[in-house]
């Protein structure tokens, strides 16, 4: 994936972000792009919500191991799995409910990833947020990491807000409006800017 035009545009529009880009180097957003169908992507997102990445990875692995005869369970597989079995994989009661609601909605006719690709970002958010446990942030992660949309700005993401506070030397975490206002400079490549802001949190202070 060639991000050179996006990088050049961002550097010209935001000198502070330009310095961060120089420190971090090449954008590797493509290296963290996900695979799998919509059920796989959203179920993974649900399991990763509000817990550490390490814990979520362990739970996700145990979840997949419940279905040894296929790379990933179908919607029917999930619906036919007793709640207690899912709980035994470390999945919380609310997330068991979310997974089954997702599976039922897939059977009822959620759009496929190919169909979503033809839709605008906001239309995708409207189509998927009726699923229990799937909010705007969850769909925005799908947009960025599965559908490869380049102009997504998740204003509720704590990492983005922490990155902005650090990079722009703010006294406290920015509110949504501050994030939105800053993001105007980064259009139409806000996903790329977000990747750099996430990376900024890995830089050690001198």
UniProtKB/TrEMBL annotation:
<keyword id="KW-0227">DNA damage</keyword>
<dbReference type="InterPro" id="IPR011257">
    <property type="entry name" value="DNA_glycosylase"/>
</dbReference>
<dbReference type="InterPro" id="IPR003265">
    <property type="entry name" value="HhH-GPD_domain"/>
</dbReference>
<dbReference type="InterPro" id="IPR051912">
    <property type="entry name" value="Alkylbase_DNA_Glycosylase/TA"/>
</dbReference>
<feature type="domain" description="HhH-GPD">
    <location>
        <begin position="47"/>
        <end position="202"/>
    </location>
</feature>
<keyword id="KW-0234">DNA repair</keyword>
<dbReference type="Pfam" id="PF00730">
    <property type="entry name" value="HhH-GPD"/>
</dbReference>
<protein>
    <recommendedName>
        <fullName>DNA-3-methyladenine glycosylase II</fullName>
        <ecNumber>3.2.2.21</ecNumber>
    </recommendedName>
</protein>
